[in-house]
UniProtKB/TrEMBL annotation:
Keyword line: Membrane, Transmembrane, Transmembrane helix
Keyword Membrane: yes
Highest taxon above the source species: Bacteria
Protein name: Gliding motility-associated ABC transporter substrate-binding protein GldG
Keyword Transmembrane helix set for record: yes
Residue ranges occupied by any DUF7088 domain in the UniProt entry: 42-152
InterPro entries per record: ABC_transp_unknown (IPR019196), DUF7088 (IPR055396), Motility-assoc_ABC-rel_GldG (IPR019863)
This protein's encoding gene: gldG
Chain segments annotated as transmembrane: 17-36, 532-555
Length: 563
């Protein structure tokens, strides 16, 4: 009887073993033919956006990504390094083998001359090294870190800066912001080199807008993604064929025919970005005696009002502002110059959580005004950029003198709070020429009174996209570069993000809204309870394993004692 039972049990065990083997083989066959991945993290940090997957799946040739964030780093940089590696691993899977990446440490080059040449070439390509200070074995050490990558495709290449975020944030927060932006930065670079953009941007002139040399950096950056055309609005019959128009710091009046062309372009689904000053003020006119800033007569107010915003004829002073050089005294015949806070140049470091402005660094502005919203049915209005809480609104005529920079600050005057200076408008707009005849001088007199859904962005500072010019060489500085303080602000990022959002029908810019929650450890508790948790982690697994072995031994002994 016992032999029969043992034989039956043996047959049952063999059958179970065969079923397990068959199940494992079936699972491997299914895994080989049906690909899937499950992200169990709360913030979906390992989930690649559908638009990124689609782009990677459309690659026709191999993309090569050389990442220079390699070496022995502190925990924060290791986390960024690991995030880049994990993201590229995911990209490789969804690219069907059309993506390859390498991690390179420039500091490993033994020959000093070759290493310096290599570092110089990286800097020319846009990867600027960062001098990282860390504590190792109780000593302060410095290491040169290259938080960037080069993306190559079919002979084209572009640099990617992986250390992004707001400089005003703590180092941990900035690294976390950089981790949040890894997917977008890499995907955007791949799109730049691998997919030829067919959208057309028109830079409009004819109303005293910024000259081409003053927008060289912006238009050059846009040409990496889009086709860019320039045209004088008064001489163009219509704006057909364009996808987006840029109006940057107009200083003279728009005719009704000019406004009609813009209006009908928007009614037909065209996008637009306006960088407009309400008051006439510039440093060239301030001089020794100062000036009064008075409103421009642009004849553009009613158009923007119909779309949902009003550019107020005001000027903002802000305690959070830039600096200008001023002569504060003389040493003999030589003037002594100091950098003085100039409250007419607000530094904008207060943003909404919209994908355009998320994790953006500070933006440098000059003589900025305020914006209000007005009723416009079917239009969603999203404020993008604000001044600091310590702002002051001035009504025209606004006296602007260099003496103001030398005056003692009275904080009680700067109590007007945060002021919006940039808005995104989305929806189906109503034409300014509704129930009106088309103005004289236009080609198409068939007025489209109600528009199709589209997007507009309005900023109350025309200098926001103006790059400075080197007076000695005549070359344009990088957009956002403050030559007096040798700092580059995020003006170009703001302008590019705005245009990408307006033209991005696939939604890649929305990847910037990815959020990874920073969960720092309690450093005091870590220090106090370090020994306890170390012992627990070492002893607990051994104790549990021993208890499992003893329990299994007695259970098996009890089970087989009956036979």
């Amino acid at each position: 009887m016992v032999a029969v039972q043992n034989k039956s049990r043996r047959g049952s065990d063999i059958l179970k073993f065969i079923c397990w083997i068959a199940g494992i083989i079936l699972l491997n066959v299914l895994a080989a033919n049906f690909f899937f991945r499950i992200d169990l993290t709360e913030d979906k940090r390992y989930t690649i956006a559908p638009v990124t997957k689609q782009m990677l799946g459309s690659l026709e040739n191999e993309v090569v990504v050389d990442v220079y964030l390699e070496g022995d780093f502190p925990a924060g940089f290791k986390r960024l390094q690991q995030s880049v590696r994990e993201t590229l691993d995911e990209f490789q899977i969804y690219s069907d083998g059309n993506l390859r990446f390498n991690f390179i440490d420039p500091n490993e080059i033994s020959d000093e001359q070759q290493r310096n040449e290599f570092i110089t070439n990286l800097a020319k390509k846009g990867i600027t090294p960062t001098n990282l200070r860390a504590t190792e074995d109780g000593k302060q050490v410095e290491r040169l870190v290259f938080p960037g990558a080069i993306v190559r495709y079919n002979g084209k290449e572009t640099a990617v800066n992986l250390l992004k975020g707001n400089l005003a944030a703590s180092p941990d927060e900035r690294l976390n912001q950089s981790v949040e932006g890894v997917e977008y930065e890499l995907a955007s670079a791949i799109r730049k080199v691998a997919f030829q953009g067919n959208k057309v941007i028109g830079y409009l002139t004819g109303q005293g807008e910024l000259e081409m040399q003053q927008v060289t950096d912006l238009l050059g950056s846009l040409q990496e993604y889009y086709r860019v055309a320039r045209g004088e609005l008064g001489e163009i019959p219509s704006l057909e064929g364009l996808d987006l128009i840029i109006v940057a710091k107009p200083t003279s009046q728009f005719t009704e025919a000019d406004k009609y062309k813009i209006d009908q372009f928007i009614m037909k689904g065209g996008k637009a970005v306006f960088f407009v000053d309400a008051l006439n003020a510039n440093m060239d006119s301030v001089g020794a005696g100062g000036m009064f800033a008075v409103p421009y007569n642009l004849n553009l107010e009613d158009l923007l009002f119909r779309y949902g915003v009003r550019l107020n004829p005001t000027m903002v002073m802000d305690l959070n502002s830039g600096f200008i050089p001023l002569v504060t005294g003389y040493a003999g015949d030589r003037p002594q110059t100091e950098m003085i806070n100039w409250r007419f140049y607000p530094l904008l470091n207060n943003f909404s959580q919209h994908p355009i402005t998320r994790n953006l660094d500070a933006v440098y502005t000059k003589f900025v005004g305020t914006i209000d919203t007005v009723k416009a049915e079917g239009v969603k209005k999203t404020p993008l950029v604000f001044t600091s809480p310590y702002s002051r609104i001035l009504e025209p005529p606004v006296p602007i003198t260099l003496e103001e920079a030398r005056m003692e600050v009275k904080p009680e005057l700067f109590q007007d709070g945060e002021q919006p200076v940039g808005y995104l408008l989305e929806g189906a707009f109503t034409s300014l020429f509704r129930n009106r005849l088309a103005p004289a001088g236009v080609q198409d007199t068939n007025v489209k009174e109600q528009g199709v859904p589209t997007k507009i962005a309005v900023f109350s500072d025309g200098d926001m996209v103006r790059n400075e010019i080197n007076s000695r060489t005549g070359q344009a500085y990088e957009l956002g570069f403050d030559r007096y303080n040798n700092i580059t602000f995020a003006n170009r990022d703001l302008a590019m993000n705005t245009i990408h959002y307006l033209l991005d029908s696939e939604g890649l810019i929305n990847v910037r809204s990815k959020e990874i929650v920073l969960r720092p450890l309690d450093k005091v508790r870590v220090r106090e309870e370090k020994t306890y948790w170390q012992l627990l982690n070492l002893a607990a697994p051994i104790v549990l394993l021993g208890l499992f072995g003893v329990s299994r031994y007695y259970l098996r002994k009890r089970k087989y004692e009956r036979f």
